[in-house]
């Protein structure tokens, strides 16, 4: 029953704004920020750091927002006990 409801919601994703991106988020998993190289200056060496939201391009920001929307759409049909369990994990492999 849960999978049936999720499948119905996934079908509705395509009709929404950025529907293709929403569907990709459901099928391919969340967007990964990755790392960014900060060039060296006269006082600091070159470093690598995790990317932040501000480092993303406009297309990547839309993809990140679609990930959040897709997650909410999928989670809304879970029974309360399953939702509570899933909502407290950041990655599916933790479940």
Structural class: mainly alpha
Helix content: 40-55%
* Largest sheet: spatial strand order: 1-2
N-end to C-end Cα span: 19 Å
Number of domains: 1
pLDDT < 50 runs, ≥5 residues = none
Total of DSSP H or I helical runs spanning 4+ residues: 4
Number of strands: 2
The biggest beta sheet reads: 2 strands, antiparallel
In round numbers, the mean pLDDT is: 75
Shape: elongated
Proportion of β residues?
Answer: 5-15%
The helix/strand order is HHEEHH
Radius of gyration: 17 Å
Summarize the helices and strands and which ones pair or pack.
Elements (H helix, E strand, L loop, with lengths): L1 H12 L5 H10 L6 E4 L8 E4 L7 H18 L4 H8 L8
Antiparallel strand pairs: 1-2
Helix pairs in contact: 1-2, 1-3, 2-3
Report on the structure:
This protein has 95 residues and is mainly α. It has one domain. Helix content is 51%, strand content 8%. The protein is built from four helices and two strands. A two-stranded antiparallel sheet has the order 1-2. Strand 1 and strand 2 form a beta hairpin. Helix 1 packs antiparallel against helix 2, helix 1 packs antiparallel against helix 3 and helix 2 packs across helix 3. The two termini are 19 Å apart. The mean pLDDT is 75.
